[in-house]
Amino acid sequence: MNRRKKLGFNGHTAFVVFNTIFMIFMIVITLYPFYYSVIASFSNPGKLMAHQGALLLPLKPYTGEAYQVIFDHPLVLSGFRNSFIVLFLGTFLNLVATSLGAYFLSLKNVLWKDLVAFMIVFTMYFGGGMIPTYLTVKELGLTNTLWSLMIPGLIGTYNMIILRTGFQAVPDSLKEAAILDGASHMQLLTQVILPLCKANLAVIMLYYAVGHWNAWFNASIYIRDNTLFPIQYVARNFMESPDLMGGAGSEAARYQELLKYALIIVVSSPIVILYPFLQKYFAKGVMIGALKG
Amino acid sequence: MFWTKVKRDFKRNWTAYVFAIPVIAYYLIFHYKPMVGVVIAFKDFRPAIGIWESEWVGLQHFKDYISSYYFWRLIRNTLRISVTNLIVSFPAPIIFALLVNEVRNDKFKKTIQTISYLPHFVSMVVICGLVKLFVGQGGLITQFFMLFGRPDEPMLADPNLYVPIHVLSGVWAGIGWGSILYLSALSGINEELYEAAEIDGANRWKQTLHVTLPGISTTIITKLLLDAGHILSVGYEKIILLYNEKIYETADVISSFTYRRGLLDFQWSFSTAVGLFNSVINFILINVFNKISKKVTEVGLW
């Protein structure tokens, strides 16, 4: 519903026209780079290199060669496998640990809760930094395993605070009734609170999942074995040096630009495809965070 | 008696503490242990003999850093990016939110919002990959500037262009997502204020000036002060993906330097010292600006 619809304005038309044009411009400028990548990745490589100016359609003759090279590459396949493992297992572990922490922090009348809360929030402002963290992960023997991509970021403090806010909003009467019925903390959490906080859980699940899918940096420092690289890091390496994709000679060199565009499409398409269905949860998370202040 | 209290609390809540164990363990291992690990900034750390056996060197690494050629360059580059961000990237989502708020067609408005949030969810590898292709040799943006006489060279090879590319690509990727905060503040403005202004004869522009802007000023000021606290912490991720040796002169910031020295050149102790120096300054800045923010917004509320 438009809140100010009934208010009429004089001399307003010029602004409305300008604003509409500006908004269309924003839409185009946001989407065009992705669209351009799609059409460039299917274009004829020679013509693409020679082409001047923007493109609206792929340059004929079309070719799917770039995608063939990408999907034939063993590192791309292992990259997808690793990313999916981290996505599902990592997000699951994130949710379990974050729920436990959020539940503990949402309790009342627990003596050490404030101390624990302080200890947790402090880490949002100060940390040991890159090298000591790296050394810790190495000491634990997590380097060169997929665990190094899941365990060091097990809990996002901000996500835990979002979830705690949701848990606290569950009416005390419900919690007390469950306790009177003899529910344990585990039952209270899994059978009363979590079902009521599905929306909050969905929001942080998406944040964690997107974070895992998009992550590359930790892999670059913790993992040596290239068959354990997640897809983003594989894509990064190939975009830095497309020769790594194999196929020697001038023929392969001609495809390098295409390969880069195709890689961009391949690694971002899961997000772009799922995004329209999930976007309402994403924005909701910011609102929850913003309300908390 | 304190101990009776502790005992009674434990008896009553021990199952809750069981819940907290993995969480506390996580924070101790992955956050507090590294905080202890920063002692290597004061040592000559050698992995073969371990942290505790390594020789103490006092403040040597800090002295080396501060007197090095890099020190001012890193501070300058970090500040240049943050300040440009505050001038360009900070107001952009506010203006965008104000304009989106003026869109009357709800469907169109929703579409714009949905599309504008999208780049936020695309990975940094992809964003920077796009940037490099578009400003690279033969790239679309490079071609555009060739119309004005630029040669067909990668724009990221020119140290003068790094900051604009970094900041403007950040605006492109972040303007929509950044506007959510302001849009939610805008939706919280009391409708009656607009009606009252309307009755007083205020036109649209005057309403924006006297109702809308004051309505979101607390949000703006809070966000500005929080951002200002991060003025010396420019993240390494984007820099590492975009920069190259030719433009270290303007593109290398404190965090990317820490990364390179520590993880690529294996100067563990020196790198940790640089990082610690920066963390302490950031901690102070963030807290100072938090305090100011609390004070200012409280005043704003009354």
**Helices and strands of chain B: which structural class?**
mainly alpha
Low-confidence runs of chain B: none
- Kindly report how far apart the N and C termini of chain B lie: 43 Å
Task: Give the N-to-C terminal Cα separation of chain A.
Answer: 27 Å
CATH class of the largest domain in chain A: Mainly Alpha
Q: What value does the Rg of chain A take, in angstroms?
A: 25 Å
In the CATH hierarchy, the third-tier topology of the largest domain in chain A is known as MetI-like fold
Most extensive interface: A-B, 95 and 93 residues
How many domains, in number, for the residues of chain B? Answer: 2
Structural class of chain A: mainly alpha
Beta-strand percent range of chain A: under 5%
What does the oligomeric state look like here?
Answer: heterodimer
Binned strand content of chain B: under 5%
User: What would you give as the CATH superfamily of the largest domain in chain A?
Assistant: MetI-like
Name the CATH homologous superfamily of the largest domain in chain B.
MetI-like
| Low-pLDDT residue intervals, each spanning 5 or more residues of chain A | 1-7
Number of strands of chain A: 0
Q: What's the CATH topology label of the largest domain in chain B?
A: MetI-like fold
